[in-house]
Description:
Blueprint: H1 3-13, E1 33-36, E2 39-41, H2 44-54, E3 61-65, H3 71-79, E4 82-87, H4 90-102, E5 108-112, E6 125-130, H5 139-144, E7 145-155, E8 161-168, E9 174-182
Parallel strand pairs: 3-4, 3-6, 4-5, 6-7
Antiparallel strand pairs: 1-2, 7-8, 8-9
The structure holds S-adenosylmethionine (SAM).
Amino acid sequence: MDNRVRIKELFNRLDRRLFMEECQEFAHVDGPFPIGYGQTISQPSLVLAMTIMLDLKTDSKVLEIGTGSGFQTALLASGAKEVYTVERIKKLHDKAVKRLGEMGFDNISFKLGDGTMGWKEKAPFDRIMVTAAAIMVPPSLIAQLGEEGKMVIPIGNGRVQELTLIEKDSMGKLDTSVKEYVSFVPLVGKYE
Ligand code: SAM
């Protein structure tokens, strides 16, 4: 099956209402919505587009920065082998751990902390998904991206940022391309 079709099918199986009890009546609307603590659940069409861009494979080991509601995490975990997700806000982290556990996911590891530092003990990763806007690509994330790895990250310090795909080849050489323009909440950490 075509990988895009596979990811689209997994996306269609997710019930977004389960991730936004704060405003469930808007779950069908293709936009970001508040999840508390000044953060948002991402626009669903963008979650899908970013996951397709990441070229997620069934055997991928994935690092996600910015667990948020866990909606993107659920899609990554549905389509990959294992997911390591980092969130800096304890209340969001706790809620996502409970929610995704109750949904039956057993291939997600959660960490509370500064995702700009990545998750060194678990590196390297085949795929890295960053769901908050960075001013620069955190060097730790580049270092923790494996050979033939891919990273999707919004870059910029304004209201609109460049959604960037970074690909690392087998020699460690990086190729960077801007795919579209997006608007994410800021990545807050050592390498913002
Ligand atoms: N994809 C998530 C969803 O659909 O619910 C949305 C994520 S929200 C746009 C961005 C998240 O990144 C927020 O939960 C925020 O707290 C988190 N975040 C920001 N800076 C971070 C950092 N340095 N480390 C970990 N998480 C961070």
